[in-house]
Amino acid sequence: MPNSRQVVYEVLEIYDEISRGYASWRSRAWELVRVLRGGVVLDLGSGHCINGLQIALTREVKYLVCADIAPSMLVEGRKLLNKKGFLKADFIAADATRIPLRDSVVDSLVSIALVHHLPREELIEVAKEVSRVLKPGGLALLTSWSKRQLRFVKQTIVNCLARLLGIRKSFEYRVKWRTRRKTYVRRYFLYEVDELKKVTERAGLKAISAGYVSRSNSLNSFVVLTKNTYS
After folding, report:
1. Per-residue pLDDT reduced to its tens digit, 73-120
2. Which domains, from first to last, does the chain contain?
3. Which one, of 24, 53, 47, 159, lies nearest residue 96 by Cα?
4. Nearest CA among 49, 101, 56 for reference residue 70
């Protein structure tokens, strides 16, 4: 298995390639984003920023930042926001473990289907960055694919055996993504609710809601987090 940084670069390469089709495949925002309030909004791992846009269109938003590691995704996001007439936005090519924003500047942070691309050590860094940029009293929403899906049963069994035999420390899943030109094999690191809560609480965040939600035939774990006023 490549190291954690190499995994991040794999994500960049694949999403840069599939960006144009991705915008049409993922054309609806998640209902969960309704829990966020507005203000200064960061869509982290935004893709084409459909979820950030949903917040912008339904809440009082001062400014929206769409941040994604794949520049071509941000190009698609700019097209979408221009089409919808929302111009109070910036598009930043950024690694989620190194968010290029000052401390305590974000009121609402949404990160949909980002963290399951990252090994645990990278997830820890993302949690620290979310805590750093979020204002005290602000809200953040994170989601991950769950292991509790029939399509992952065989891979979960293999992962358990590999851990018992000392071959692998972390659970790794492979999913094929087919396009007209090519089939990509993507790595996933799936997190359950308790795992997300544990990592984010160590970073100084507090889970105020958590659970599971079905979306596009997938079961997803989620946490809604706040930053304590004394953090």
Report:
1. 899 999 999 999 999 999 999 999 999 999 999 999 999 999 999 999
2. 4-147+190-226 (3.40.50.150)
3. 47
4. 49
Look up the pTM and report it: 0.90
Pairing of strands 183-188, 173-178: antiparallel
5: tokens are 């940084």
- For residues 163 and 178, what is the distance between their CA atoms, to the nearest angstrom? 29
Whether residue 225 contacts residue 206, with contact meaning beta carbons closer than 8 Å, is answered with yes
The alpha carbon of 212 is separated from its chain's Cα centroid by a whole number of angstroms, namely: 15
The span from the CA of 178 to the CA of 183, in Å, is 4
- Between the CA of residue 64 and those of 24, 38, 92, 115, 170, what are the distances in Å? 21, 9, 11, 20, 35
DSSP code, position 182: -
Structure tokens at 99: 């968010």
